[in-house]
Amino acid sequence: MAGRAPALxxxxxxxxALSFTAALAWNDAVSRAVRSVFPPVSERAAVRAAVVYAIxxxxxxxxxxxxxxxxxxAYLSYEGMRGPAARLRAERPKTN
Length: 96
Fold this sequence. Notes:
The chain folds into two domains: about 10-40; about 40-90. About 75% of the residues lie in helices and about 0% in strands. The chain has helices at about 10-35, 45-75, 85-90. The chain is elongated, with a radius of gyration of 20 Å. The mean pLDDT is about 80.
């Protein structure tokens, strides 16, 4: 089965769904906090603030994903590994 991606199981799907729900709750909480600290003066200012918030959130998520991938690659490339890391490295598709 080399080269195949691991199958998703119900635990992974449930964790993803719960994480998404938590992310939506945090998004609402942060949006309300920002609006209470910096109330929009006009509708145009509210739209501009929403766009800035979306861009900042996107940059934060991209930075976190890049750091996570770098840490994961370092973990998988460790030569003396045993256990789960060795299994993950064996399942990783080979790249040229």
